[in-house]
Amino acid sequence: MRRVVVLAILALALPLGAWAGTITLTNQYGTISVSNSGIVSKGSELMSFNGITAPKGHDLGYVNFTTGGLTSGSWATGGTLSSVGSTFTITSMGKYGQPRGTIFTGSFVGPITLKLVSQLPHSVVWTLTGQIQGMYNGHLVTGMTTETLYSTNAQWAGGIGHIGAGSSSVEAPEPGTLGLLGTGLVGIAGMFRRKLMRA
């Protein structure tokens, strides 16, 4: 009986060990356009990725995203955006040790929050926060992103803005550990099979 309990605990613990941890990245600059269809961001520079930081005056690649339109609230006071038809892509140039090409391709999932942080006579600052999901290193992963948007009041009214800074993180599996998980599960299944055949 004790062996069965230990095997059950191992079976529950192995999937947790299959995750290497969190991949974090930061981005800055780039432009956004705002319309009834949602927000489109282009050319935000990837500044750090998984511990690799771009040298001063350089970047690692680009972060681009789109959202759906407003489902509640307003562009003037903040609200909730739809994730339907959204995109979130991270592309790398591979110059400083990070992978080359598309690192992450996916979309927002669930509601996206647009929150008014400050409004001064000539400028406005927002945060856009949402959950993202997509493919990283051949695996489906989920994470979160927070983007700080800024604009002048006149530009924002005209649908123009910029990205001040962004921070994203995804929970990434480690392929070697996933192989170990598979081997462990096969071993556990074999032990249960042997035990059942003896009974």
Walk me through what this model shows.
There is one protein chain. The protein is an alpha+beta fold. It has two domains: 1-18 and 174-199, no CATH class; 20-173. The chain has helices at 2-17, 153-157, 175-198, and strands at residues 19-28, 31-35, 38-49, 52-53, 61-66, 70-74, 78-81, 87-93, 100-119, 123-136, 139-152, 160-173. Strands 1, 2, 3, 4, 5, 6, 7, 8, 9, 10, 11 and 12 form a twelve-stranded antiparallel sheet that branches. A hairpin with a 6-residue loop joins β8 (87-93) and β9 (100-119). The chain is globular.
Write the layout of secondary structure elements.
Layout: H1 2-17, E1 19-28, E2 31-35, E3 38-49, E4 52-53, E5 61-66, E6 70-74, E7 78-81, E8 87-93, E9 100-119, E10 123-136, E11 139-152, H2 153-157, E12 160-173, H3 175-198
Antiparallel strand pairs: 1-3, 1-12, 2-3, 2-12, 3-4, 3-5, 5-8, 6-7, 7-9, 8-9, 9-10, 10-11, 11-12
Helix pairs in contact: 1-3
Compute the number of structural domains: 2
* Range of strand content: over 45%
Span of the ends, CA to CA: 13 Å
How many DSSP-defined strands?
Answer: 12
